[in-house]
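User: My collaborator sent over this chain with a note saying "see what the structure looks like." That's all I know about it. Can you take a look?
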Amino acid sequence: MDCPTCEAMVDAYVDGELSARDSAEFETALAICAGCRKRLEAARTMSNLLRDLPAEPAPDLLRARIERDLRAIAGRPRERAREQLRWAAIAASLIVAVGLGWLGGNLTGQGGRQSDEMIAGYLRVAMAETPVDVASSDRHTVKPWFVGRVDYAPPVHDLTAQGFPLLGGRLDVVDGRKVAVLVYRRNQHRLALTVWPATAAGDTSPDVTVRDGFALTRWRHAGFEMRAVSDLAPAEMKSFATALDRAIDTGS
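Assistant: Without extra context I'll predict from the sequence alone. Here is the result:
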């Protein structure tokens, strides 16, 4: 297991969401990687901070201020490890405050849990100084990077001409499974697209919902489940989904 794969599994490991086999592979890799051990320590610190936070919903004004600060830091230079951990704690506070419950256990079914994981993954992308594990707008660089890291070939397309340049790819864990995440940019905003093979047949139209200041788009196309998250306006998210579907269909 390489470092990007190991790092992508840290949060799921802390939350007890990995299978016994994945947990064993993770622990084996952890023993020889100091960087991943440091990442695990930071994740456990954040988890402890979460448990100490009050469970009451945050006032609307406080929530709005935190959301504004999270959006602002996406392109702002920051100090290294200490600052990253501080911002992770702020993000975790937001997640708890708005009632996402991705660590709290008060979930409202599989769809709600999956949305929680999507938003949590987007926050990791939005706050990271390096939001991708492979940085390139070239599909012929990004797509091969996923070989051996996930058990499928995700559709990779650069949408610069449509206003959504591809920044690269990374790994994450959704429902206990390693998945491919493609990161795009829209002006100063980042957009995280998570894709995995569909288990149902047929395409569906993009459905955009807004949850706690984040726009979530879900749809199925060309045999893949698509989940996109950003702090963009719903209309822009729908434009992204439409542009991606067209690129997949035309092979551009």
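A starting point for your reply to your collaborator: Strands lie at 134-135, 166-174, 177-186, 189-197, 207-211, 214-221, 224-230.
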